[in-house]
Design brief:
single chain; Rossmann fold; 11 helices; elongated; LacI/GalR-like_sensor; HTH_LacI; Transcriptional regulator, LacI family
């Protein structure tokens, strides 16, 4: 019985009416191939079921066509949503992905995970690690392109930082509440050590200082609704609390329930602002006022810059902030005395 042979590049070239060299250029992402030729080659490859040999491609191009992803492995909305966006963006760019989940907050584990990706020969690394500190000297991994989605690490001579404007979001939430006439704004912060939590807290504190408003001691939760509920009970017991900025929407949901259980109406007695704009935020009994960050856009933009750094090698130190948006709904209002 005859054995059907595998489809090879010369078959694709013949079907597309181009040279084998052109097929190789398309496979390796050469940007100088005319778009119509590229599409013809891709269509022929798809029709024939051609699968390029990754090892051969790496040998020819000097690249693995693989991007490493260092992720905290959290199921929390922000990191998990970023991870989905990163995967979609990497695969859309024609790269494979190698993922390593880190142990949260363990510098040794985080450093070893990064070194493991570097040793695999990845073309670049996207870091979705909002807690960790790397035990590496600046530039220790050379000019390997690094995309940081959670703050600058200074571990490569070719580092791109892309982040939502976390501090700007904290400032906007606080300014919104102060603008309604609240004397001050209490803050339920994220866990200490998380970069995003620290930046949102900085924005809250900056807005209070600019307004000359007193700054209550922040309360730290763990991003979960139960922690928001526990801290919300403490806030609900204080009759002077009239406005609260919560560092994420899940904790804000817990805070809202705590106020409801204490018989304090939102926004009649207390105004609440969250952060993230999770899908459920608009469908609560009182639709949540919150700060929206577009994590899919953030991931797509960051990966696009990373791929450009891989395919057009150059030393750079680039920082980009993606704007956030205040979404005003039903959980904020002027305090009773100001209506």
């Amino acid at each position: 019985m005859a054995v059907e042979r595998a489809v090879v590049a010369v078959d694709v070239a013949r079907a597309a009416g181009v040279s084998q060299k052109t097929v190789s250029r398309v496979i390796n992402g050469d940007p100088h191939v005319r778009p119509e030729v590229r599409e013809r080659v891709r269509a022929a490859a798809a029709q024939l079921g051609y699968r390029p040999n990754r090892a051969a491609r790496q040998l020819v191009s000097g690249r693995s066509r693989t991007i490493g992803v260092l992720s905290v492995g959290s199921t929390d909305f922000g990191p998990a949503s970023l991870m989905v966006g990163i995967e979609h963006a990497i695969r859309s760019a024609g790269y494979a992905m190698s993922v390593v989940n880190t142990l949260e907050g363990d510098p040794e584990s985080i450093t070893e995970s990064l070194q493991g990706l570097v040793d695999q020969g990845v073309d670049g690394v996207a870091v979705n690690e909002p807690v960790g500190v790397f035990q590496l000297d600046p530039g220790q991994i050379g000019d390997l392109p690094i995309l940081s989605l959670s703050g600058r690490y200074g571990i490569s001579g070719n580092e791109i930082m892309v982040d939502a404007d976390q501090s700007g979001g904290g400032r906007a939430a606080t300014e919104h509440l102060l603008g309604l006439g609240h004397r001050t704004v209490h803050h339920v912060a994220g866990p200490a050590g998380w970069r995003s939590a620290g930046l949102r807290l900085d924005g809250w504190r900056d807005a209070l200082e600019r307004a000359g408003a007193p700054a209550p001691e922040p309360l730290h939760g763990d991003w979960s609704a139960p922690s928001g509920y526990a801290l919300g009970q403490r806030l609900a017991a204080d009759p002077d609390v009239s406005a609260v900025f919560v560092a994420n929407d899940h904790m804000a949901i817990g805070v809202l329930r705590a106020f409801a259980d204490a018989g304090r109406d939102v926004p009649g007695d207390v105004s609440v602002v969250g952060f993230d704009d999770i899908p459920e935020a608009a469908y609560l009994t009182r639709a949540l006022t919150t700060i929206r960050q577009d994590l899919a856009q953030l991931a797509s933009f960051g990966v696009r810059l990373l791929v450009d750094a891989i395919e057009n090698p150059r030393r750079q130190d680039r920082r980009e902030h993606v704007p956030v948006e205040l979404v005003v709904r039903e959980t904020t209002a002027a305090p009773r005395g100001r209506r």
